[in-house]
Amino acid sequence: MRKRASGALGVAFVILIAMTALAQVAYAGSPHFVSLSKSISGSTATVSGKVAGLGDETQIHVEATAEVACLNPGEQFPSAENKQTVGAGGDFPVQNGKATFSLTLTATFKPKCSPPMTLVWGSITVTVSGDSFASFSRTI
Q1: Span 8-16, mean pLDDT?
Q2: To the nearest whole percent, how much of the chain has pLDDT over 90?
Q3: Quick check: 97 and 71 in contact, CB under 8 A?
Q4: What is the pLDDT of residue 82?
Q5: Coil/strand/helix, residue 4
Q6: Closest by alpha carbon to 61, among 88, 86, 39?
Q7: CB–CB of 54/110 below 8 Å?
Q8: Are 66 and 125 in contact (CB under 8 A)?
């Protein structure tokens, strides 16, 4: 009878250790993008998305950066003043391990990028960071 009791205690101990390990994995989460999109209209770009796998994180910080330039009719980028890096950032609340965000980036050129020149947006890089995980990025 004692052998069965000590065997049952051993099994219970192993189950307890396994549950503790799983709970720690669930707490840490596995942050990732669920969706990520961009919309460009003239001198403004909007980046929206959803991040999941955030565990018990209370908020995330999201930053977006892009290169923007004026392109002349000869398809050349004329001067350094007509190129710039633009960015936006913000903090967004996490609910049930998920967060949604939307950021607006605006390009302002002096002199203006006006016809016959056209405004060209490069790729936009979105970076997410939080207190309990390493930051991660995606370029769209």
Answers
A1: 50
A2: 61
A3: no
A4: 80
A5: helix
A6: 88
A7: no
A8: yes
